[in-house]
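User: I'll paste a sequence; please echo it back and then give the predicted structure.

Assistant: Echoing your sequence first, then the prediction.
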Amino acid sequence: MSREVLKMYSDYKSPYAWLAFDPVFELEKKFDIRVQWRPFQLRIKGSGQRSVYSEYKVKYSYMDARRSANERGDKKIIRGPLKIFDTAPALIGGLFAEKQGRLIEYSRLVYELFFRRELAVDEVDAVERFIESLGMSGAEFRSYFEGDGRREYEEAQQESQGDHIFGVPICVFRGEQFWGNDRVPMLERRLLEAGLSLSREKQLA
């Protein structure tokens, strides 16, 4: 029997999506589920378009993300972006990497380099070079980006409307939303209540 699907909507410009990424995929080792990663373009107002209270919230958010990472022992460098990024090129790159069986590796590095301010996630050429550095075909990515990739990305944005996605990270299990990296323990309890725990033998396999 196929595993039950747990959706996770992410955007590479969200530090909270980064904090949730590995813990959510780790759930596949404990429960009879398959995590389905879905790209979502987080719409953020730029500096000058936000109220002073929103500016306070943005600064707090990055401080809180760093604090959360430090509390669990993650050595993550989380620097606030210097502009608002359209992450479509990197998100389409994630869809491409997924087809190569490289989504987790790709995403981990995209998050790391983006928050170090070392990867322009909004530039197709930069994403293509990054993909090549991982040993995948830049030419195939470019062809995918200009064809099926753009279509599949837009389909994911449409799908997000049906799932009522308003931010990231959001996981969807049986129609129930779990927003934020701090909701992963609650999600885990829900999976346990649903009777989806794998046997000890399967967890170790």
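Residues 138-162 form the longest helix (25 residues). DSSP finds eight helices and four strands in the chain.
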